[in-house]
Design a protein that fits this description.
single chain
């Protein structure tokens, strides 16, 4: 996998993760379930990263090899890190805006 392909997939997966996490949070809220937003984001992003890369390999006709499986795991890790960094930054920004708005 080239670096360009990796970055394109990571960008697409970030969008999918964001939408999926928001949908899951609404579902869990409607069910009255107690959950950690960070845990939901990490789990969803790891699944999307690994699964999405596997789907890409199948569609592109790329055989599964040790190197490709390592790339799948790295994509899962990168998607999880991206979700956590993105989520934390958004929450931090919202808190800063609400604190300044209330003062």
């Amino acid at each position: 996998m080239t670096a360009q392909t990796f970055m394109i997939l990571l960008s697409v997966f970030s969008l999918i993760v964001g939408l999926t996490v928001q949908a899951l949070k609404k579902l869990l809220d409607s069910l009255g379930a107690s959950y950690s937003s960070n845990a939901v984001a990490v789990i969803v992003s790891a699944i999307v990263g690994v699964g999405g890369t596997a789907v890409y390999y199948v569609i592109a006709g790329i055989a599964f090899s040790a190197a490709n499986i390592i790339c799948m795991l790295l994509m899962g890790l990168a998607a999880a890190v991206g979700a956590m960094v993105g989520y934390d930054k958004v929450i931090q920004t919202v808190k800063q805006i609400t604190e300044k708005g209330g003062a």
